[in-house]
């Protein structure tokens, strides 16, 4: 159980910055390309964000 906690902390710290970056990229993308926004890319980014959240 200690190892589980250790890995959770390690992965959370490791991917936290990446997650924030992804969300920032996504919000900027929505902001700049609102008029011709690609729904597929949004879905893809959401999936990636969800993937990193789970780690």
Tell me what you see in this structure.
This protein has helices at residues 2-32, 39-54. It starts with a helix and ends with a helix. The protein has one domain. The mean pLDDT is 72. The chain contains two helices and no strands.
Calculate the mean pLDDT score and round it. 72
Q: What general outline do the C-alpha atoms trace? A: elongated
Figure out the total of helices. 2
How many separate domains make up the residues? 1
Strand content: under 5%
Order of helices and strands: HH
Rounded to an integer in angstroms, the radius of gyration calculated over CA atoms is: 14 Å
Brief sketch in words of this structure:
It contains 2 helices and no strands. The protein has 55 residues and is mainly alpha-helical.
Annotation keywords:
elongated; 2 helices; mainly alpha
What's the structural blueprint in terms of helices and strands?
Layout: H1 2-32, H2 39-54
Helix pairs in contact: 1-2
């Amino acid at each position: 159980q200690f190892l589980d906690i250790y890995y959770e902390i390690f992965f959370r710290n490791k991917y936290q910055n990446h997650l924030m970056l992804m969300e920032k990229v996504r919000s900027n993308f929505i902001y700049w390309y609102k008029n011709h926004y690609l729904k597929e890319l949004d879905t893809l980014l959401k999936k990636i964000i969800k993937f990193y959240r789970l780690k």
